[in-house]
Amino acid sequence: MVDVGPGRYALPMETPPRSTLPAPGPRAPSVPPAGAVARLVRSLRGLPPAQDWWGPGCAGLPGWFHAESAPTTEATPRFRELYARVRRGERVLPAEAGRHLYLFVKGMLGDELFGYLEANQLRLERRGLETHSVCVDTEAPLEANLAQVRKALEDAAFFGRSVVLVGHSKGAVESLSAMALYPHLRAHVRAVVALQAPYGGSPVAHDLMASPEMRRVVDIALPLLFYGVSRCVEDLCYPARMDFVRRHPYPADLPTVSLATSRDSRRSPLWPVAHYLRQRYGLASDGLVATVDAEIPGSRVVRLDDLDHAQAAMLGIPGLTPYHPGDLTEALVALALE
């Protein structure tokens, strides 16, 4: 006890133990989880350098199927007549048009693009026609989407409906492939409209997958950004298309209209790619598909030299594109039903 004054005592105070915890420092800022683009960049940086690629690319491959397929028929003049009438507000669809179901099949990345094929489909609906979008996965391989096209056709057949297939880009390839692969369904299809289909293959897809540097970008980007697989790009390379078409040739007796386009204008967002294909291979293209690869065997071909790959399926800036997707589709469907 400690004497603190007359008659007053107090217990000695114990010194409190010193804390062993470190002094609080500045709080670290919270870091948001990395997005898909950041993960993509980090994944690419972590890969070893790719081998240099100096191969021939797709030289000599575009249009490979023309020598071994049914000839096409020129339909551009007739299309221009119909398109001009559509622009004037005249009726061009035949009376039978109302009896059919119109199935639209989207191309690659179609689920990611705002307004993709909407104007095309809406135009037919405004003409009183029944339309439906086939539930394909636009970043899936050809084989998986063929099953969806087949199911849509079988459903229509079950209810006694005749069908007009309208496909764009890879979606057109899937429509054409279904007709080649499932002969029993052809009786239920009145016509096929193939918009800018890489039927023979795509030089862009081929060069992407042939280059080791670009292929690894595709292998990583599609799963990270779009939950897809690089197989959907590989399906459009020339070797894959050669193998499929030679085993399953397209039926020349099925009424088909194919739109084969090109555009080499700086006003087009796809001009850098179209310019690359022209400079390296001498190809006329719409920026993604060579014109000669979009001319379906046995079809009536519409050839336009002022339309890029996006403008047939999406609304463009007024004054920068000469065609409206709805007008284009209405004229092509009328042509297919003649």
UniProtKB/TrEMBL annotation:
InterPro entries: AB_hydrolase_fold. Residues 1-31 are annotated as: Disordered. It comes from the Bacteria. PANTHER family: ALPHA/BETA-HYDROLASES SUPERFAMILY PROTEIN, OS05G0557900 PROTEIN. This is Lipase.
